From TrEMBL:
Homotetramer. Signal peptide: none annotated. Substrate binds at S69, N119, E165, N172, Y196, Y248, V266. This is Glutaminase. The gene is glsA. One of its GO terms (molecular function) is glutaminase activity. It is an enzyme of class 3 (hydrolase).
Length: 312
């Protein structure tokens, strides 16, 4: 179906939000990060920022949630801005086919993570952002970047979530130490993890997240300033990585069902980019067995059908 902007987006997402409210199977809220375990699985929100500057929202779109791994897209953008394509000597660009926190491929692959969206890859990206900074400055840089692309200075980091994650992040510590043994982490592991945990603890609403994704819909251009956040080629490549790796070992299934590049997080958020058309954020905290939002995925599948949006 040709990609066209649907005229009745508000009606479509109102209907989807209503359908989601009636869903019995909402998945399971992530409980390995203390701050996330308390979130009510009943929530569902969706926002769409379109290429012509409009915003459509339904459900709990104004409620802040922990964006978790969706932040890996923004961190990757910053790291590429710092070191360019040399980043790819330290991180791969292939789907892992394994869980987001898996360690198994690192041994045979010499400490080079498969892609920047699995935890190991994102920890290397955090190490790149940390270069030349104190951890607090690196965290500040990430926060400033996200506020700038969203055009919203109200975006915050939830220190409690970051702290809870530091206290329970034994796997991430294992990944970082293991990669350091191969020379692929250059800074002290506690500092790198501090940056990574704070980036994951960014708290945003669906509206803020949909706004933050707009540069990826617009070939790298910031819609509010007209300046390029990144080049068109880089925006396309980040979208390509989201398509192939954005949902970990559920990426094939998500591409099959939705057909649009997206990035998920264990907070239940998904950012979805329809190139040239829309930047979308959906949030529902219950997760499927791959760690991706159950209702978020279902809602986006229905949205793709209703609008005819697809990159294929
Ligand atoms: O490192 C972690 O486990 C979390 N901060 C982020 C994981 C995440 O969101 C994976 N996404 N589905």
């Amino acid at each position: 179906m040709p990609v066209t902007a649907a005229p009745d987006l508000q009606a479509i997402i109102d209907r989807i939000a209503e359908e989601m409210a009636g869903q019995a199977d909402r998945g399971k809220v992530a409980d390995y990060i203390p701050g996330l375990a308390r979130v009510d699985p009943k929530h569902f929100g969706i926002s769409i920022a379109t290429h012509d500057g409009k915003m459509y929202s339904a459900g709990d779109a104004a409620m802040p949630f922990s964006i978790q791994s969706v932040s890996k897209v923004f961190a990757l953008t910053i790291a590429l801005g710092k070191v360019g394509d040399s980043l790819w000597q330290r991180v791969g660009r292939e789907p892992s086919g394994n869980a987001f926190n898996s360690i198994v491929q690192l041994e045979a692959e010499h400490g080079i993570p498969r892609n920047p969206f699995i935890n190991a890859g994102a920890i290397v990206v955090a190490d790149v952002i940390l270069a030349g900074h104190q951890p607090k400055e690196a965290i500040g840089e990430i926060l400033r970047f996200v506020r700038q692309i969203a055009g919203d200075d109200g975006i915050m980091i939830d220190d409690e979530v970051a702290k809870g994650e530091a206290e329970t992040g034994f796997r991430n510590a294992a990944l970082a130490n293991y990669m350091r043994s191969f020379g692929n982490i250059h800074h002290p592991v506690e500092q790198v993890l501090g940056v990574y945990f704070h980036q994951c603890a960014l708290t945003m609403t669906c509206e803020q997240l949909a706004r933050a994704g707009r540069y990826l819909m617009l070939e790298g251009q910031h819609p509010d300033t007209g300046f390029n956040v990144i080049s068109p080629m880089r925006a396309r490549r980040i979208n390509a990585l989201m398509m192939l790796c954005g949902h970990y070992d559920g990426s094939g299934e998500f591409a099959f069902r939705v057909g649009i590049p997206g990035k998920s997080g264990v907070g239940g958020g998904i950012m979805l980019i329809v190139p040239g058309i829309a930047s979308i954020a959906v949030w529902s905290p219950g997760l499927n067995d791959r760690g991706n939002s159950t209702l978020g995925s279902l809602a986006l599948e229905r949205l793709a059908v209703a609008t005819g949006w697809s990159v294929f």
